[in-house]
Amino acid sequence: MTNHPHALDALAAADAAELEGILLEVCSSPRWAAAVAEAKPWSSREALLAANAAAMAGLTVADLRDAMAGHARIGQPKPGDATSEREQAGIQGVDQAVLDELHEANAAYEAKFGHVFLICATGRTAATMLAALRERHPNDPATEAEIVRGELRKINDIRLNRLLDAS
C-alpha cells in the first residue's frame, strides 16, 4: 500500500472534536478513539495502524462491548450503511436457508455471550462466516473476548486504510 501523507497530515491536523468523530466512525469505542488520537501525529500509515493495535490491546471487556455496539449483526447489514453493506458483501444473493442458519447461530451466540458475533467479514462468504460462528460458539467468554479483540483490530485496520486511501 502506498502512503498518502496528505491524508495522514489532514487527519492529524483535525481538531479534537472532528478527529474524535472520524475515529468513532472507524470504531465506536470512546477509549479506542482517545488512545488513537493521543498517539498523533502519526509519522506513517504504519504508525497509525500501530496506534490501532496498541489501542485495541488496551481495551477492557466493557470497551470491547462499546466497540461491538457499532457493528451490525452478521447476515444483517445496517440498511443504508455503506460500510456495513460493503463489509458484509459476502452475504449478497445468498440462499435464504443460509441466512436463516446465520440468524439462528447468531441468536445462540448472543444468548451465550451477550453481544453480537463479531468477525472481520471483508472478503468472507456467508458460509465461511457461519462456519466461524459455529466454531467459536463453544469458546469461554475470556477466549472469545480475545478473538473479538483481534477481529476488531483487523476491521479497524481496513477502515483506517480506506479512510487514508479515500482522502
TrEMBL record:
* EC numbers: 4.1.1.97
Query: For the Oxo-4-hydroxy-4-carboxy-5-ureidoimidazoline decarboxylase domain, which residue ranges apply?
Result: 13-161
Pathway the protein takes part in:
Purine metabolism; urate degradation; (S)-allantoin from urate: step 3/3
Q: In which domain of life is the source organism classified?
A: Bacteria
What does the record give as the reaction this protein catalyses? 5-hydroxy-2-oxo-4-ureido-2,5-dihydro-1H-imidazole-5-carboxylate + H(+) = (S)-allantoin + CO2
Q: PANTHER family recorded for this chain?
A: 2-OXO-4-HYDROXY-4-CARBOXY-5-UREIDOIMIDAZOLINE DECARBOXYLASE-RELATED
From the Swiss-Prot or TrEMBL record, give the protein name: 2-oxo-4-hydroxy-4-carboxy-5-ureidoimidazoline decarboxylase
Organism encoding this protein: Kitasatospora cathayae
Q: List the lineage, top down.
A: Bacteria, Bacillati, Actinomycetota, Actinomycetes, Kitasatosporales
State the encoding gene: uraD
